Amino acid sequence: MAALSLSFDEMWEKIIACDSSYDNLFYTAVKTTKIYCRPSCKARKPLRVNVTFYPTIPEAEAAGYRACKRCQPDIAQAPQAGLVTNVKAFLVEHYKEKLVLQDISQHVGISAYYLDRLFKQHTADTPRAYLEKIRVDKAAHLLSSTHLTNLEICYEVGFQSTSAFYRVFRRYKQCSPAEYRLANANRPIQP
Questions:
Q1: What is the pLDDT of residues 66-107, one digit of tens each?
Q2: Roughly what angle, to the nearest 10 degrees, separates helices 101-108 and 112-123?
Q3: Cα 175 from Cα 158, distance rounded (Å)
Q4: Is 37 labeled as catalytic in the residue annotation?
Q5: Beta strands 51-54 and 35-37, pairing class
Q6: Euclidean distance between CA atoms 82 and 85, whole angstroms
């Protein structure tokens, strides 16, 4: 699997939120305990300076880390879970593109109907809803860490229209993009 296009800050936000939708896409390794976990692990959160991220379990283990006994990231998954993880990684990597269910199903080699049903069974979301969540997460990160306008962010994260961007953003964050930017104004802005 190729490295994800998530920044350290974005991955950090996912582990602080215990976001299970990013499980098996990357692993959090804690330097002081020499343990690696899933992003959704409920164990006490480490200090930010003690965290390293790895895209795969073998990479974390090669660096000298062992699996967390609480979230057990090394336990083998069912074959369908591997397929769902593949779809999630595809969506994270291609969120900027105009994607339809048929494109995603062709990537994994199964029918669109079966993919939709399987994905929902494993994640409680459809691939479309998961893609929207990724786009909103990216938009929220850009709103709080850059000077890009809302319009620029809308198109940067893959929305095809501003009305869809505002509607979906409000659904996930319970506020408009402008309100979100104001609420997170105290975070440092990247150039």
A1: 998 888 888 866 667 888 888 999 999 999 999 999 999 998
A2: 90
A3: 19
A4: yes
A5: unpaired
A6: 5
Superfamily of domain 130-183: Homeodomain-like (1.10.10.60)
Domain boundaries, the chain: 8-67, 86-126, 130-183
Selecting among 18, 37, 154, 175, the annotated active-site residue is 37
Catalytic: 68?
yes
**In the sheet where 51-54 sits, what is the strand order?**
51-54, 27-30, 35-37, 66-67
Tell me the C-alpha distance between 140 and 119, whole Å.
24
Architecture of domain 8-67: 3-Layer(aba) Sandwich (3.40)
Highest mean pLDDT among 1-15, 68-82, 130-144: 130-144
pLDDT tens per residue, range 34-61: 999 999 888 889 999 999 999 999 999 9
Examine the residue annotation and report whether 175 is marked as an active-site residue of this protein.
Answer: no
Q: Is 71 labeled as catalytic in the residue annotation?
A: yes
According to DSSP, the β-strands at 66-67 and 35-37 are: parallel
